[in-house]
Amino acid sequence: MVSSITDSFDSALNRWAVDIADPKPGEHLLDIGAGVGPSSLVAAHRGVQVTALEPSRFMRAGLSLRNRIANGPIRVVAGSVESIPLQNEVVDVAIAVNSFHHWQDRSKGLAEIHRVMKPAGRLYL
To answer: C-alpha distances in angstroms, 58 versus 12, 63, 69, 78, 106?
Structure first.
């Protein structure tokens, strides 16, 4: 019972986060600490180009499986916010849902996000 309540809350939270960030079709969204991808999947279904950044190989495996089942175009990448494996200025929107507290070095993470964001990019923590 408790698990189903928390799953429902998490699902609503991830939809809400994507709604607030409001990425447009064709924009590039970086989902920082994507976990098994609830936010990534919501954004991808809206026509957004999604890169899901996740340090845990177990979470990446779960996300990759969910992405395949949904025929999703999500790019799942290994890494942390402190060292984002993307080129400079390629991200339109970055979100971090339930992951900020896991960052090892918040200053370095924010600097990395700034590096990969386009000049008019938007960040939602």
So the answer is: 23, 9, 17, 11, 23
